[in-house]
Amino acid sequence: MDRGRFVILCHLLKMTSGLVETKVVDVQKMVAMFLHILVHYVKNRMIQRKFVQSGEIVSRHFNIVLLAILRLHDELLKKPQLVPNSCTNPRWKCFEMYIKVNVSATDSSRYKTRKGEVATNVLGVYDMKGNFMFILVGWEGSAGMNFETVELSTGYYYLCDASYLNTEGFLALYKGERCPLLEAFKLLKCSWAILQGNSCYLVQVQCQTIMACYLLHNLTNKEMTNAEIPDELDEGDLTYATIEGDDIDYIETSNE
């Protein structure tokens, strides 16, 4: 995030979310600490040294900024728009991705994916301009997605990945066809290192952090017309729910 978008973010947080400075940290500094953690995924003690603050101040202001960014939900999460019949651009799909999380030993079995990793399942809906319109985080890695409870207008369809079934309102790709939305998730994980590995935060905070990354992606995309995808992170480093043979047609429930 360059200086221009940083200023825009701070302005939005102050004017829309009501973020104010505290006795020890001003708005710009607390936002800078928060973004530094998300972009580089460094531990609390690294932020203490870099910004010359105590661990308690770093932790408290991380949560203050996190909640303030989530309050930008209505501002940054784009409303769905119909795709015109003349459109041939395939980059408007719903897609699912695993993000590794840190949970207690008693909950690890529920969050274990088919590959044996402990992760949360994230569903994203992506529009034709590169913005996320819908984000669902927090369900266990062992769970699939069920579209039965999703309400859609009659005659309209969401394009979705080949691992989903063709159902009313959802049109799946042929198996083996490349899904351009992979590039959106690749850009997300390249931009926000905290999404690439196991987090040290509680799973509830991790899910809020994931949501914040999506909202910041929309802000960045709004202010930048050409988002380049870095080459240093190839597709082998990313973990997706939609792999060959993982047909998703149900969601497992739990008593938790």
From TrEMBL:
Signal peptide: 1-22
PANTHER family (alphabetical): PROTEIN ALP1-LIKE, PTHR22930
One Pfam family of this chain: DUF8040
Residues covered by the DUF8040 domain: 1-70
Keywords, sorted A to Z: Signal
Protein name according to UniProt: Nuclease HARBI1
